[in-house]
Amino acid sequence: MSYKVSRRALLGAAGGSATLLLPLLRSIEARAAGAAAPLRLLIIHHPLGTAPGGTNWAPNASSTTTNFTLPMESAPFAPLQSKMVMIDGLNLVTATTSKSTTNSGHNTHEGGMVAMMTGVPTLGVYGQQDHCAGGASIDQLLLAQSPLLGGAASTTKTPFGHLALAADIRSDRDEVAPRVLSYNAPVQASSIQLSRQPIYPETQPLNTFNRIFGGALPQGMDTSALLAQKLSVVDFMRGDLARMSKLVPASEKDRLAAHTVAIQSLEASLRQSYGTTVQTSSCTKPATPPTYNTVGETGGGTIGGISSKSSNLSGEDYYPTTANCTPSTETSCHAHQDVALNQLRLIKAAFACDLVRVATFMYSAGTNWVVFPSTFQGATISSAALGNNGQSTPHHPPSHVDDAPTHAWLNQINVFYSTLTSQILQEFASTPDVDGNTLLDNTIVVYITEVARAWDHDQRNMPLIVFGGKNTGVKGGTFLKVTGGSLQSQNGGTGNRPFNDFWLALAPQFGVNWPSLGDKTQYTGPLTGIFA
Questions:
Q1: In a 10 Å sphere around its CB, with 0-12 CB exposed, 13-18 middle and 19+ buried, how is residue 169 labelled?
Q2: pTM (2 decimals)?
C-alpha cells in the first residue's frame, strides 16, 4: 500500500474525526519533510489600561533601548523580555462617518475597543456609548487577505478559520462595543446597529472544546474499536515504509527515518485523542474542560445592568472563591482565572494542531464587571471607591476614583492579568511546534487594552506589547519609544503617532501590505523598529 493510499485510507476511516486528523497528519508530514511551521496571530485584550502616567507599566526611558527594567505592572513579563517589544507613544485616534453626531468614541472604553480593533471610523453611536464598527476588525482582515493564515487567500486553509474567545463579557450596559473584539465587514441595513457585524466571543471553554475538538469521536461509537481501526491503517503505513527502506538509495534513508518518527507521533496522537494517556510533543487533544456556571448576562438588572440570566455572553467572577474547592494544578479556585487559562490553552492546542492560525481573546469587556475582593494581592481599595459593596466590587466602577489606595488596587489587577498572560505565553514558549521550534517561535502575540488609563479614559500612550519568537521577526528585548510624530503625549509635549501605525507595521509580517488604514487622521505610516 503506497503512502498516498495509506493516507486516504486513514482519513476515510476517520469518519467524523477527519476534520481533526487532516491537519494533524498534515503537520506530521510537514515535520517529516522539514517544512516550516505556519505563522499565527493571537490578540489578547486586558481591560482598563494602566496606572496614570504609565509609570508602573513602561520603563523610565526617554528613547528606544534594549537595556531596561520592567516596572510593577509589566514585571511578570520579565521571563519573556527577550521575545517582546514594548511600545510607548501611540495614541488611539477615533473618527466617525456619521452625519448626525460628532461623537466618535474618543476617550471612552466603548469607542476605544472599536477604534483599536478596526482602525476605521465608526458608523455612529447607538444609545449612550454603543459605537458601531465601520469596518472589519484587523484579525478578520488579515485572515481574509493573508496567504499565511489559513483563510480565503491561503493555499492551505484551516478547518475553523479563527477563534474569538473571552473569559467574561459582562458590562455596564447592554452594549456591543465594549464586549467584542472581532467584526466582519458591515452590511447594508436599516440602522447602524444592524449594519455592524460583531463576532461575539465564546465565554464557555466547554463550548470551545466541543466546537474544535469534540468532533473527533463520533457519538455512540466504541472508542476502543475506533482506535483499533485507525491504528490498523497506521500499521499499513509503517509496513509500507519498511518495504520502501529496502528499495531506496542510502541518501534517502534519513528521510525515511523522519517519516518513521512521524508515524510514531501520529500513533501516539491517536491514542491520546481516543482516550489513552500517551502524550505527544505536538498536536495533542486537550482534556475536556469543566462546565462553568456563569453569573449573569449583561442587561436588565439593577446593579450595573447585570441580570441573573446566564448565557455564553456572560462570565465568571474572581471573587468569591469556588465553594468547597482546594487549589491544585487543575484549578485556582477562582473561576475567572480558570476560565481564562482554559480558553487560552484551547487556543494553544488549536494552534498546535493547525486547526486555526488566528485567534482573539478578551479577559473581560472594556468596561469590566468581574468582581474582585476589596483587598487584592496586598492592596486595599479606598472606602470611597468601594462604597456599599462590602468585601468586593466589580473592577470597572472604582476605576474612576482618583486616590492612591484605589490606584494601588487597580495596579494589582493589572499585575494579575499580566501574570496570567505571561504564564500562558511561557507555555507557548515551551510547546514544540511541527518544525522543531516552539509555538511562540511561530506566533505573533499582541497584548492590548482599550484606554491608556481608566480613571479619565485617556487614550494617549496606549499600553502595547508585541511578543514573538525567532521566526516572527519580532525584535525581542526592545523598549520602543515612539518619536517624531505630531500627536501629544500623556505627560506633555508632542512626538506621538496614531495607533494604526502599529497595524500598518504588523500586516506585512503576514504577507499583507496596506498603504493606509482609516481616516487620514488615524495613520501616518508603518511604525519601524518592531520587526527585523
A1: buried
A2: 0.84
